[in-house]
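Collaborator request log, item 7. Partner lab (contact: R.S.) asked for a structural prediction of Bifunctional NAD(P)H-hydrate repair enzyme to inform their binding assays.
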Amino acid sequence: MLRITPDHPHPLFDIAATRRLEQAATAALPPHTLMQRAGLATARLALALAPHARTVWIACGPGNNGGDGLEAAAHLQRWGKQPVVTWLGDEAKAPADSLAALARARQAGVVLAAAPPTALTRQDLCIDALLGIGSARAPEGRMAEWIARFSRGVAPVLAVDLPSGMNADTGTFATNPIAESAISIRAAGGFHAQYTLSLLTLKPGLFTAHGRDAAGQVWFHDLGVDSAAQTPAAILQGPPLDGPRAHATHKGSYGDVAVIGGAPGMAGAALLAACAALHGGAGRVFVALLDPQAMPVDTSQPELMLRCASSLDLAPMTAVCGCGGGDAVRHLLPKVFSTAAHAVIDADALNSIATDTQLQTLLRARTGRDGSARATVLTPHPLEAARLLGASAVQIQADRLGAAQQLVERFGCVVVLKGSGTVIAAPGQVAAINPTGNARLATAGTGDVLAGMIGARLAAGRPAFQAACEAVYQHGLAADRWPEDRALTAGELAAANR
Ligand SMILES: NC(=O)C1=CN([C@@H]2O[C@H](COP(=O)(O)OP(=O)(O)OC[C@H]3O[C@@H](n4cnc5c(N)ncnc54)[C@H](OP(=O)(O)O)[C@@H]3O)[C@@H](O)[C@H]2O)[C@@H](O)CC1
Ligand SMILES: [K+]
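Returned to partner:
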């Protein structure tokens, strides 16, 4: 059993691949083995998380997720914990594995309770074994009531395989009230500790959209099954493998970044991206502000070279384009797309592309046959992604991996779909989901900082997908390590990155 942290990459498997693995393993093992392993792992983790629990409530659903809960109940009963077990199943309809688990629980001395326990404390534990990967619709009735009880209560909750009701592929809920109630309770500072033990495979939904809030601390048990035969739907990103810089290098070794943006009233966005590129290690950073009244030098950052956009030779450069660009950036995009060696396209540049088919054609033309000729990274947040795909932000959020992949197919670029569990997708690559970052990044300018960080890595010669993955990881990590007692501002974040 493994606690999942951002320190290592992990393959993530969707429901279809998980079902294939489950089928193959079930056929190769004695009956009920997988569920017995799942139940034992759940019981062990429960005991480790709540060693002093006076009451353990195991809420079991009608399918095999409930069977895992019943198996866990048998172990906890034998270990003297006397769990309160409520089951929503029907013996006439329950799957064979679950029925066997029910029999084993009864054998161990478990008596099914008619109702959940009341007055659980922070020392106690709820085990959520209502729904796993078979979650098919919005929970109703007693199931919905029990899920609401978990989220409103103070007792820690251990979700078996998934937080019940969550779609394992997307991290969304059939109705959002569960996720929204979890988020609003957490925002109010009164949230119980939440854990999830993912079984057989780690699923993408645990790490993106509402998944991160709903799943809490994620643990994993592979049930002794090797997943190598299946292709992952995504990779949970690990840390960059950064080595020290070689001694015999100079500023030319780390490339030039040209930040193009900062229309009237929005110079700050471009300067933040430039600051981030500088601190991210770019050899030289040029800034072309789109405000004719803009200052000729930034005295607080004299390293930045402020130039007129028309005077920049972008052919050897990495253009970071769009931060605070307003509508003024639109007429510069043809030059950027046709000449810049590498490009990061952000914010207003993305909005310009969304409404201009000629720009879309030029953007697609940047991609060589090998997909890497003139590396281009698009960095939309969900609303920008929605504009690019002619969809709504809700539709984008309903399937973040799918939306990122659609953008890749449409534009042939690397795509960074920002948000909780940022998705990085690229032609011919298994997508990555970033495990770092938190809601402290929800403040103006942090997206500009990310664009500058990606630009610095592209300028240093990193392949585009790697540059994007590494920058997103480091950007989030800086937020995760931010001192509790200090406000996170984009300016400080830009200067803190590396
Ligand atoms: N088999 C094995 O070897 C292993 C399985 N494992 C475990 O099994 C889990 C998958 O089990 P599963 O396929 O039975 O699906 P599960 O998540 O229990 O849900 C299906 C049931 O719930 C019902 N239902 C659905 N939505 C509902 C709703 N909203 N409200 C109410 N009911 C709803 C649905 O009813 P129906 O739609 O048929 O009416 C059906 O009865 C997996 O996540 C893992 O925990 C592991 O132990 C590894 C070994
Ligand atoms: K569950």
